[in-house]
Specification:
Elements (H helix, E strand, L loop, with lengths): L8 H12 L2 E2 H11 L8 H13 L3 E6 L2 E6 L1 H9 L1 H46 L7 H31 L4 H17 L1
Antiparallel strand pairs: 1-3, 2-3
Length: 190
């Protein structure tokens, strides 16, 4: 996934957020998360160093408010925003595009997960209707449930890894063959 903000744009966007009203760092992080509909929430390790740099550059001030540090834009920060108004308009359009792109990715991921879930449920319903009921002791039933959850988790992780490799163009026929052979060898060893 490409970065949400181009070089230097998060810094400018932080100034834009602080122009509305002073905020403590966590509020800044929340405001960014809200702006991106929860699809992008920067880490504290991303936001706080940039706020410190803005303070160092004289564009924001920080004051202690109990255990919190509140950041406020300075006159120099407002002057920078005014001088870069065209860039901010372009930045806001880019943020809108990023939000749409991130939302499309989330939608696609949820759709894939739902398709997979429907297929799993259909396969489970089919196997339940064609198999004889099995009486399994409670310890065996518990172990079987744990194994089924482990297999389901493994399947999801492998699917995600393979999709990433396919997206990057690094998924080869050799990988598919190795995975198929390894799974078959594991099945035979049981």
């Amino acid at each position: 996934m490409s970065p949400v903000f181009a070089h230097g744009h998060l810094r400018l966007y932080l100034l834009t957020l602080l122009a509305d009203h002073p905020m403590h760092g966590y509020e800044v992080i929340q405001a960014l998360g809200d702006r991106f509909g929860g699809t992008y929430v920067p880490s504290a390790g991303t936001v706080y160093p940039r706020l410190a740099k803005l303070e160092e550059d004289g564009l924001v001030t920080k004051t202690a408010d109990g255990r919190k540090t509140v950041y406020a834009i300075t006159d120099a920060g407002r002057a920078e925003l005014a001088a870069r108004a065209d860039e901010i308009a372009s930045l806001e359009a880019g943020v809108n595009d990023s939000v749409k792109s991130l939302a499309d990715g989330v939608r696609a991921s949820v759709s894939d997960a739902m398709r997979s879930l429907r297929a799993d449920l259909a396969a489970s319903a089919e196997s339940t209707s064609t198999e004889e009921p099995v009486s399994v002791p409670s310890d065996g039933a518990r172990a079987l449930r744990e194994l089924e959850m482990a297999l389901s988790s493994f399947r999801q992780q492998v699917r995600a890894d393979l999709r990433r490799r396919a997206t990057r163009g690094t998924l080869s026929a050799d990988t598919v063959t190795r995975l198929r052979d390894g799974l078959e060898a594991l099945r035979k060893s049981l």
